[in-house]
Write a structure and sequence with these properties.
Layout lengths: L1 H7 L3 H51 L2 H4 L9 H13 L6 E8 L4 E4 L17 H5 L6 E3 L3 E2 L5 E8 L4 E8 L1 H50 L13 H55 L5 H24 L7 E4 H11 L1 H6 L3 E4 L5 E4 L1 H18 L5 E9 L2 E8 L6 H4 L17 H11 L2 E9 L2 E9 L1
Parallel strand pairs: 8-10
Antiparallel strand pairs: 1-2, 1-6, 3-5, 4-5, 5-6, 7-9, 10-11, 11-13, 12-13
Helix pairs in contact: 2-6, 6-7, 7-8, 9-11, 11-13
């Protein structure tokens, strides 16, 4: 079931291609099969009609007038009976002719090719063709539609008018019509086989079209998330290759502008940090003088607090614009989690929030300082969002070739509108926030071949995942 969903519903374009290709092919196969069957059937029936007409005319024209004149008598002499039966036998062709007989306007048998047949008896099967028989002119012939007997065999009547009140009838075997009917079944089998083939062909065509498009969609998503290390898809041809080249050019331009922006941001931060350091030094000296004179230092303390905030903001800008390159080596998760608990011990105690960390002996390949900064940012956000008496859990699982660190809290959650923006730089819902904590954390994860994302969020809390690829 999952495979069917993956094939048919994972991509609307793929589904549309398969459905369209299959429907058109099914129509073509079914129509072709039906037309072929009808053509063969009509061709055989036309041939059979000509054959029956020729036979009945040939026999009718061979009857001598003197024997025709004996027909109105109703009862034929033994000589006349012998003449007719001998004539019927001479003109018989193998086993295709089932019976030949002469009947009158009351549909009574006067003479029959089967010598054991009772004469002067009504032939009820002729009533089905009464209108065609009555419409015949003398020395003209007509054939009936093919009909199926109780035994399951197909036959066709041929009638030839001998006199005003007498007709010659031939019942011909339509043996091949049964085989033609079998063709209908064969054509349906061919149609079903064609449908199956078209579905597989549709899957193949859809894969050839959709897979390169999916690669380009993935490539565009990586560009959108500023992952400029992603390589352009190489298994694309034609117009899609032109599109891939255009996207590669766009990626390079974005990467260039992004680097320019980061360099400009770093330069501005440095230009601000240098005079800010001088201001901080002078403010501290002024504070020392005021303390010696035992004067109020509230204003100076306010200045120093604002300077400290500015320095922290500038550090965040620099960390975001040029994060330190990762130096990954094996980190002991147990000690890292314990360190995080210690860092937030006072804050969690003040709000009566429990921080539970899983006990694990696992090690992961990660830059220790990066992992510490990421966890500090995430746990700090959880503390801000969690009310008194809440709980924060740090868990770890390892499966299917990758590992996950899971940070879950029982806070107020993140609104649906904010979920798509939380990793954007400078986006924040806090009054005093810089909006760079999650953006920096995401960058640090990327430096360590890891991913950071929000798995779920509701009024019952949020869950963030650090997915570490092996």
């Amino acid at each position: 079931m999952n495979l069917v969903k993956k094939i048919f519903f994972a991509s609307r374009l793929r589904t549309n291609i398969i459905v369209t290709f299959s429907v058109v092919s099914i129509i073509i196969v079914v129509v072709t099969a039906r037309v072929s069957y009808l053509f063969i059937k009509e061709l055989y029936l036309d041939q059979l009609k000509d054959q029956v007409n020729l036979y009945v005319k040939t026999v009718g024209l061979q009857i001598e007038d003197r024997y025709l004149k004996t027909l109105p008598l109703g009862v034929l002499s033994p000589g006349a009976l012998f003449y007719f039966q001998d004539l019927f036998e001479k003109n018989s062709r193998d086993n295709s002719v089932q019976e030949v007989f002469i009947f009158d306007f009351n549909f009574k048998l006067l003479v029959h090719s089967d010598t054991g047949k009772t004469l002067n008896m009504l032939e009820p099967s002729l009533y089905l063709n009464k209108s065609e028989i009555d419409a015949l002119d003398i020395c003209s012939s007509i054939t009936s539609l093919p009909f199926k007997s109780k035994t399951g065999n197909w036959y066709m009547w041929g009638f030839y008018k001998l006199t005003d009140n007498h007709w010659l009838a031939v019942r011909e075997n339509a043996l091949r019509l049964k085989k033609v009917e079998l063709f209908a079944m064969y054509f349906w089998y061919i149609g079903i086989g064609g449908v199956i083939l078209t579905i597989f062909a549709g899957l193949f065509v859809a894969k050839k079209i959709v897979d390169p498009i999916n690669q380009l969609v993935w490539f565009s998503k990586q560009i959108g998330s500023r992952n400029f290390n992603e390589i352009k898809p190489d298994k694309v041809t034609g117009e899609l290759k032109i599109l891939a080249d255009a996207m590669e050019l766009m990626k390079n331009n974005l990467m260039k502008h992004h680097k320019e922006k980061e360099e400009m941001l770093a330069r501005i931060a440095h230009e601000i940090r240098n005079p800010l350091g001088g201001i901080e030094l002078l403010a501290n000296l002024t504070k020392e003088d005021l303390l010696k004179e035992k004067k109020n230092t509230n204003y100076i303390d306010g200045i120093l607090k604002e300077i400290s905030g500015l320095k922290e903001l500038i550090t965040s800008y620099l960390d975001y614009s040029k994060p330190a390159h990762a130096n990954p080596h094996l980190c002991n998760l147990s000690s890292t989690f314990s360190e995080i608990q210690n860092i937030f011990a006072k804050n969690s105690t003040d709000k009566q929030i429990t921080i539970n960390c899983v006990q694990t002996s696992d090690n992961i390949l990660f830059d220790p300082s990066h992992l510490r900064n990421i966890l500090v940012n995430l746990v700090s956000n959880s503390l801000d969002a969690t009310s008194y008496g809440g709980k924060i859990t740090i868990d770890f699982i390892s499966q299917n070739g990758h590992s996950e660190i899971i940070i879950n809290d029982t806070g107020n959650g993140i609104s649906k509108e904010a979920e798509s923006k939380i990793f954007e730089p400078f986006f924040t819902t806090k009054k005093q926030g810089t909006g760079l904590g999650l953006a920096i954390s995401k960058k640090l994860c990327e430096e360590n071949n890891a991913e950071l994302f929000l798995r779920e969020s509701s009024s019952m809390g949020s869950t963030f995942i650090i997915k570490i690829n092996s």
